[in-house]
Every structure is written in C-alpha cells, then in structure tokens.
Amino acid sequence: QGLMQCRCSAKGVEGVGNGIKVIMMKDPWPEVDITVAGVDKGKALNRFLQHESILKHLGIGSVDPERHVAVFGDAPNDVPMFRDVGGLQPALRVRMPHSTDEALAELANHSAEVSDVLDMISSQRTNGVLRLPAHSRI
Fold first, then answer.
1. Which residue in 35, 48, 40, 30 sits closest to 8, CA to CA?
2. What is the largest CA-CA distance in the chain?
3. Phi, psi dihedral angles at 103 (to 5 degrees)
4. pTM
5. What are the pLDDT tens digits along the chain (138 aa)?
6. Separation CA 25–CA 33 (nearest Å)
7. Other CB atoms closer than 10 Å to residue 62's CB: what's the count?
8. How far, in Å, CA of 5 to CA of 123, rounded?
9. What are the residues whose beta carbons fall under 8 Å from the beta carbon of 22, sequence distance 6 or more?
10. Burial class (CB in 10 A: 0-12, 13-18, 19+), 73
11. How far apart are CA 47 and CA 6, in angstroms?
12. Cα separation of 63 and 54, whole Å?
C-alpha cells in the first residue's frame, strides 16, 4: 500500500483514518503538513473543548465557539479551524500579518500578532466580555 492509502483506527469517528492529507506551505518558511485524512485543527479543537476535564477546569458545562473561542493562524492548515469548530465559526479569528493565505484573509476578522491580541484582551476585558469591532486590524 502507498502512503495515501494508509489506515488508522479512529474509534468510530466518521471520515477519519482513510489515507492522509498533505498541505504544502511556504510562509514563513517551506513546510509540509501531513495529517490523517479527516482530521484538521478545527475538529481537534472542537474535540478538545468538549473534553470533560477541560470543561471542569474552565468551570463551565460547554464552550460556545461563537462566544468563547479565539483562533490564530498563518497557513492553509489553519483554514478549517477558522471555518468550523463544532459546526460554528470561532468568535475571534486572527490572521498573522505575515500570512499570505487568501482563504485565511477571507475568514479572519482580525489581523495582528498574537502578543498584540493577548495584550488587547487583557486590557479591554470588562466583566468577562471582550468588546471588539466586527472586523479590524489590531
């Protein structure tokens, strides 16, 4: 069997484990991202956010991506995470300024360095609610 026909156990997760997915990336340096077919950052983040120990640590019953999730990305392998976390689009989708990926640019609602966004979140939080314009460059 060739690499593209590899199989792995996904414990019943639909569409996972039949072959691999290869994403060629160039920014900020040449890189090849290889994952199991059917697995991407959006699905992985959703599964993480539903894990009982994570919810217990956060002290909440569930995470609403449209209200509680911020994602940061700079390459094509980040597109699924910008598009869909548990069937919903994350509230804050930050594209790194050095990114040249057009799909990320379309899906992002902010363009900034991670440190700038975290500084802004820390300084602008009011009663647990972050107030951001719908689309901005931080």
1. 35
2. 56
3. -65, -40
4. 0.72
5. 454 555 555 555 555 556 667 777 676 667 777 777 788 899 999 999 999 999 999 999 999 999 999 999 998 889 999 999 999 999 999 999 999 999 999 999 999 999 999 888 888 765 555 555 555 555
6. 7
7. 10
8. 49
9. 32, 33, 34
10. buried
11. 23
12. 10
Angle at 112 between CA 50 and CA 97, to 5 degrees: 110
Asked whether the beta carbons of 111 and 137 are under 8 A apart, the reply is: yes
CA–CA distance, 137 with 18 (Å, rounded to integer): 39
Residue type for position 1: Q
